[in-house]
Amino acid sequence: MESSSLVPHNDPTLMFTNAGMNQFKDVFTGKEKRDYKRATTSQKCVRAGGKHNDLENVGYTARHHTFFEMLGNFSFGDYFKNDAIAFAWELVTKNFGLSPEKLLVTVHATDEEAAGIWRKVTGFSDEKIIRINSDDNFWRMGDTGPCGPCTEIFYDHGDHIWGGPPGSPEEDGDRFIEIWNNVFMQYEQIDADTRIDLPAQSVDTGMGLERIAATLMGSNSNYDIDIFQAIMTHSADLTGVSFKGDQAPSHKVIADHLRAASFLMADGVMPSNEGRGYVLRRIMRRGMRHAHLLGASEPLMYKLFPTLLSKMGEAYPELGRAGALITETLRSEEERFRVTLERGLKMLDEETARLSGGQNFPGDVAFKLYDTFGFPLDLTQDALKAKNIAVDTAGFDACMEEQKKAARAAWSGSGDTAFGKQWYDFAEKNRDD
Question: In terms of DSSP H, where are the helices of 97-225?
C-alpha cells in the first residue's frame, strides 16, 4: 500500500500520522473490512507533538527525527506471533545479512509465548531474550485505540560506543539500537480505565528506514545516510561551516526540519498560529534559528529544498507538485522570522546574563518571547540548552493560562455572551495543539 498522508483525515485523535499502522486503525478494530489480510508499507511519519514527540532531541542524538519513514508489515487476523517472529528473523539475518551475534531481542515481561518462540527460532539463551516490564514493550497509538505487547530486535554497534542493553541503566546510549518492533495487536484502549479484546489478533511491525539504512552501512547514526549527507553538505557549502565539527547539531536540525516542513506542506499543512500549522511553524523556526547560528545572513532553508527534492522526489512525487509553494513559504517564513529573531535573542541574552548559577530562566520572560517575538517555548529551551540553563516551565504555563482567561473574558464581553463563552470553551477543548 502507498504511504498515507501526514494529516490523518479520518482520525481526530491524532495531530499527525506517527506510525505505519495509522491508516489501518479501523481494520485492526474491525470497523473496516478490506479484500486483503496482509500489507506492507513505507509510511512517512511526523513526531513533533502529543504522545510521540521527538522534537527536543533532534540534532543532539544519533537517531531522533521529526520526520522519518517507517517500514511496516501488517497482518489483519492472519499470521500472528509465530510467523511474525520467523519473518522478522529471516529478513534481518538472511536478506539483510546482519550477524545473529550482533542481535538481541526484547519481549514484554508478561509475554512468555513470544520468548519461547524466539528461543525456538534463534537458539538464543535467556540472557539474549530480555524481558521488559514497562510501556517500552507495550505499544499504544495514542491515549486510545489499538494496542498490544511488543517484541523488539536490537543491534549491538560494539563496545567502542557508550551504552547498555535495553532495561539496563545505560540503555539510552547509542551502542544498542532498536531496529525492529513487532506489535501484537490484541487489545483496544477505549479510555484510561477500559481495555477490550480486538475482534482478531493482528500484527503491526515497524522498522525505521533511516535506522536500518545506517545499520547496513555500518553506522549507528541516521545522519550518515545519503539523504542527510546531501542536505548537510549543501548547508555547509552555503554557510561555510563544516557539518562535522562543533556545529554538527545545527546542520542536523536544519536537514531534519527541512524534511518535516516540506512533507507537511506537501500534504496541505501551512504555517499558522494554531493547531498543525503552529507545530509546523515551530519546526520551521527551530531550523531557521540554527541557520542563524551557522552565520547565515539571509534565508537558507528554501535554498536546500532542491537537494531534498532530488533525493526524495521520485519516491514521493507530491514534493515536486508542491515544490513552488514549499520554496516560497520557506523563504517568506524565514524572512519574517529573521525580523524578530535578533530582537528576541537580544532579550534572551540580556536576561540570561542576569542569572546566577543554578537559576532557571524566568517563565514570564519565556512567555514574552513567545507572545511578542514568536519564540515557541521549545525554541527558547533549545537556545539555552548549550548553556545548561533550564526554563521555568511552570511560570510559562501560568502566563499562558492567564492569557487564556483574559481571552475568555474578552469573548464573554461581546455579542451573545453565553454563546461566545461556550464556543471559546469548545474551541479550547478541541484544539489540535
Answer: 112-122, 209-216
Give the orientation angle of helix 323-354 with respect to helix 301-312, to 10 degrees: 130
- Cβ–Cβ under 8 Å, residues 98 and 92: yes
Residue 18 CB neighbour total at 10 angstroms: 25
For residues 31 and 11, what is the distance between their CA atoms, to the nearest angstrom? Answer: 13
Helix segments in 162-274, DSSP class H: 209-216, 226-239, 248-266
Mean pLDDT by 10 residues, the chain (433 residues): 91 86 88 94 87 68 90 95 96 97 95 96 95 84 82 95 93 92 90 87 94 94 96 97 93 96 97 90 91 92 98 97 97 91 86 85 91 81 85 92 74 44 50 46
Residue 351: in which H helix or E strand, if any? helix 323-354
CA proximity to 378, closest of 362, 366, 360, 365: 366
C-alpha cell at position 250: 545545527
- State residue 67 phi and psi, 5-degree precision: -115, 135
User: What backbone phi and psi angles, to 5 degrees, belong to 396?
Assistant: -60, -45
Q: For 145-230, where are the E strands, in sequence order? A: 145-156, 176-191, 194-208
Distance CA(330)–CA(309), nearest Å, equals 14
Give, as one character, the DSSP assignment of residue 78: S
CA–CA gap between residue 12 and residue 158 (Å, rounded): 43
Q: Which residues pair with 52 in a beta bridge?
A: 49
Angle formed by the axes of helices 393-412 and 363-373, nearest 10°? 50
Residue 164: which residues within 8 A CB-CB, separation 6 or more? 170, 171, 173, 175, 176
Question: Per DSSP, which regions of 76-144 are E strands?
Answer: 103-108, 129-132, 138-140
C-alpha cell at 137: 514493550
Q: Is 103 helix (H, G, I), strand (E, B) or coil?
A: strand
Please say whether the dihedral angle defined by the alpha carbons of residues 407, 409, 410 and 412, taken in this order, is positive or negative: positive
Q: Residue 238 has which C-alpha cell? A: 552555503
